[in-house]
Design a protein that fits this description.
The chain is of the alpha+beta class and about 325 residues long. It is built from eight helices and 18 strands.
Length: about 325
């Protein structure tokens, strides 16, 4: 089987892509890697400079790039499967270029589906499972809601790993900002919102700050509607961001009935749209109920963390599934 994995320019051994590649190579598949940003069209076909990997040379060099045997320009449509593993934001023009690729070859996740769900505002259709959430690029509206809620979280579209998450609160008619290492920074709200929305051109997600953040952010990984596993990510001391890449700590957890019901209702919609692998993130709202925070569809991570936490080998399930779906 010919498998092509799309990624960004840099590699790391502590991630999901690494274990997927290693497992696919162990089964003697032809495994290729390509940089998604560098794809191009020729004679109405989509090409990429595919790097052929091998079991013998598999690894990462000193420049944080995967070692490969040779690089060959090939049509992506000649693969049995293409697996998209590039962190967001994926360049819009590249997604548009490959949005119909799923009609020719099995693609995970389908580019057309990623386009549909790439904005956080796409979650609006699942609002019954979410805390009260607002999606807007209107600075006046956002300012009004911040004044009403007093303490809230703003998320920039296409952000990941906690990088685009901002906590804003009001105290004595002054506004303060928390973001990663920024603590209680006094801000002028209107200029700040203009900056985050790029002068009112980019939507933000706004939600009340949930007081139970210390109970953690749960990542639940789904494969075609089936739960593969879950981890609970808790913020580090003096932080409110749970993402592991931003200092959060992972541990074991269980799935609640509310989460099972949520997944049961949402997963068929995602699968129908070509989103086979998804990462559901849940938080505890002020009433103590687990609610939907995000659904990750572009580059779902944490497989390697689940492996370590529960002594699993999820890469075997993923490659088993790819083999089944690609033939």
């Amino acid at each position: 089987m010919k498998l092509a994995f799309a990624t960004g320019p840099y590699a790391q051994s502590e991630d999901s892509l690494y274990i997927f590649l290693k497992e696919a190579l162990s089964r003697n598949h032809k495994v290729y890697l390509f940089i998604l940003d560098d794809i191009y069209t020729k004679d109405n076909h989509i090409f990429a400079d595919l790097m052929l990997l091998s079991k013998k040379r598999f690894g990462i060099d000193n420049n944080q790039r995967y070692k490969f045997d040779k690089k060959v320009p090939m049509q992506l449509g000649s693969m049995n499967a293409v697996f998209l593993k590039r962190d967001p934001p994926v360049p819009a023009d590249k997604l548009e270029m490959i949005k119909d690729l799923g009609k020719k070859v099995f693609v995970v996740n389908d580019p057309a589906g990623i386009i549909k769900y790439k904005s956080k505002s796409s979650l609006e259709r699942f609002s019954e499972f979410m805390p009260e959430t607002f999606f807007s690029k209107d600075v006046s509206f956002l300012k009004q809601k911040i004044n009403e809620l007093k303490d809230c979280v703003l998320k920039q579209d296409f952000s990941y790993g906690g990088l685009g998450i901002h906590r804003i609160y009001e105290k004595n008619n002054q506004y303060f900002h928390n973001h990663l290492k920024i603590k209680n920074q006094k801000i002028q709200l209107t200029p700040f919102l203009k900056k985050l929305t790029l002068d009112g051109t980019k939507k933000l997600t706004l939600v009340r700050f949930l007081k139970n953040i210390d109970q953690g952010d749960k990542r639940i990984i789904i494969l075609d509607g089936k739960i593969l596993g879950a981890i609970l990510r808790k913020p580090s001391k003096d932080s409110w961001i749970c993402n592991i890449t931003s200092g959060g700590v992972a541990g074991k957890t269980t799935i609640t009935e509310d989460e099972q019901e949520m997944i049961k209702k949402i997963s068929p919609v995602l699968t129908q749209d070509g989103i086979h692998i998804a990462g559901f993130d849940t938080l505890v709202d002020d009433s103590g109920k687990r609610v939907l925070s995000e659904i990750n569809t572009t580059n779902v991570g944490a497989f390697h963390i689940l492996n370590k936490t529960y002594n699993l080998k999820l890469e075997k399930k993923i490659i088993d599934w790819l083999e089944h779906e690609s033939f």
